[in-house]
Write a structure and sequence with these properties.
The protein is of the alpha+beta class. It is built from three helices and twelve strands, in the order E-H-E-E-E-E-E-E-E-E-E-E-E-H-H. A hairpin with a 6-residue loop joins strand 6 and strand 7.
């Protein structure tokens, strides 16, 4: 299985390079997060926007298997202490609301829904693809609600086709605008939704199910 043999279309419509993208750190090692009111989405958004602006970039990126400190902002992730879900399973691309999102390869719409709730995905689309003779699913979270209008399960989507747009808060799950992009080999019965984070106890299992999204994104920054 050689992912490099596939010519994936850039999910954001352009390659994510060292010239337009900066890696963002939302792990506990980032001391700046300690003084940031993460529950205040406007303040959180200002922080993210400033990080991108300070690096003269268009996008912020990161997160695959990152141990994150930012999930304390929402009870969506609160479980028993030993199973607190704070390991990120996708890659986040932080940018302005309204930024277009494209399908990286041919597929069809598997499912979609509005995952409502503070800290959730908001509008979400899952595509089903066939790659190397096996099924592969790609998830796009935190979209515009209007992107769910007029689409249908089973609808074919071509590589490079405009799929959706990065949604604004609060309708995107009340996050600073970004795309949550995730790959799954098995949806485990989910429709329009899939865990975007897991507990440290579950990491080894989810690493098998959720390959590194940068296999498709191919960002130079990661």
């Amino acid at each position: 299985m050689n992912w490099n043999e596939i010519d994936f279309f850039p999910v954001m419509g352009e390659k994510l390079t060292v010239y337009n993208t900066v890696k963002l750190d939302f792990s506990p090692t980032n001391s700046e997060l300690e003084s940031l009111d993460l529950a205040n989405t406007a303040a959180f958004d200002e922080y993210v926007t400033q990080q991108i602006k300070n690096s003269n970039s268009k996008y912020g990126i990161g997160g695959y298997l990152e141990h994150r400190a930012i999930y304390r902002r929402s009870t969506v992730f609160a479980t028993a202490e030993a199973d607190f879900r704070n390991i990120h399973l996708g890659i986040d691309i932080w940018t302005e609301a309204g930024a277009p999102v494209f399908s990286p390869l041919d597929g069809r719409i598997h499912s979609y829904q509005d995952n409502v709730g503070f800290g959730n995905y908001g509008a979400t689309i899952i595509l089903e693809h066939e790659l190397f003779g096996e099924k592969l699913f790609s998830l796009y979270g935190h979209l515009f609600l209007s992107d769910l209008v007029g689409i249908e399960i089973g609808q074919e989507v071509k590589s490079g086709e405009l799929l959706a747009h990065v949604g604004p808060f609060p309708e995107n799950g009340d996050w600073p605008p970004h795309l949550h992009f995730q790959l799954m080999r098995d949806l485990m019965g989910n429709m329009g939704d899939f865990p975007g984070v897991c507990s440290q106890r579950e990491v080894d299992d989810y690493k098998v199910i959720c390959p590194d999204p940068n296999l498709i994104l191919r960002s130079e920054v990661l």
